[in-house]
Design a protein that fits this description.
This protein has five helices and four strands; from the N terminus they run E-E-H-H-H-E-H-H-E. By secondary structure, the chain is mainly alpha-helical. Helix 1 packs antiparallel against helix 2, helix 1 runs antiparallel to helix 4 and helix 4 runs antiparallel to helix 5. Pathway: Cofactor biosynthesis; adenosylcobalamin biosynthesis; adenosylcobalamin from cob(II)yrinate a,c-diamide: step 2/7.
């Protein structure tokens, strides 16, 4: 259980922050950028939920919880030392990825195949979900870059890749199952 009885600690005033294993790094470190962008993704999901209801809202709530798991995973380097940890280390799982894939497949059955790219927009919820998609894509790019430099849980990167696909399909669902998607018309304004 997390207990936060003091919000500011002053330990980051010199431009460093603590990772999940206690080590300190610069606040601009690649790992901090990756999990910080996951946190930003979570904030955009919170905005999308203002427009969501029912099953979609419940799925977004699960994604928000997953994103905290993902941040915990990414803030903890040295996967090879997980077994030595005093406490169980929280890592993303293939099961979380599979859940997203199942939900994407279910949404895909409800929409017609695309014959054009779509513009972010349509309904307020769809626009928010497209914002979620683009921020999660940035988080994925940062996690992939981090993985090229340091140890990263492969399920974390895969989850981010599926998540942006999930947001895309959810955006189509939010646009009347794709019937109200705003289609890109190449060269329309020449």
């Amino acid at each position: 259980m997390v207990v936060l009885n003091k919000i500011y600690t002053k330990t980051g005033d010199a431009g460093e922050t603590a990772l999940g294993n206690g080590s300190r790094v610069a606040k601009y470190a690649m790992r901090v950028n990756a999990y910080g962008t996951v946190d930003e993704t979570n904030a955009t999901v919170g905005l999308a939920r203002l427009h969501a209801s029912g099953e979609l809202d419940a799925q977004l709530a699960m994604i928000q919880n997953d994103l905290f798991d993902l941040g915990a995973d990414l803030c903890r380097p040295d996967m090879e030392k997980d077994a030595e940890s005093e406490y169980p280390v929280l890592r993303m799982t293939d099961g979380q990825v599979s859940r997203l894939e199942t939900e994407i497949d279910a949404m895909t059955k409800l929409v017609e195949p695309l014959r054009s790219f779509i513009l972010p927009g349509g309904s307020a919820l769809a626009a928010q979900l497209h914002l979620c998609r683009t921020v999660s894509r940035r988080a994925e790019r940062l996690a992939v870059e981090l993985a090229s430099l340091e140890s990263v849980n492969p399920a974390a990167v895969t989850y981010l890749n599926r998540l942006s696909d999930w947001f895309f399909q959810a955006g189509r669902i939010a646009n009347n199952n794709g019937r109200d998607d705003v289609l890109w018309v190449p060269g329309a304004n020449r």
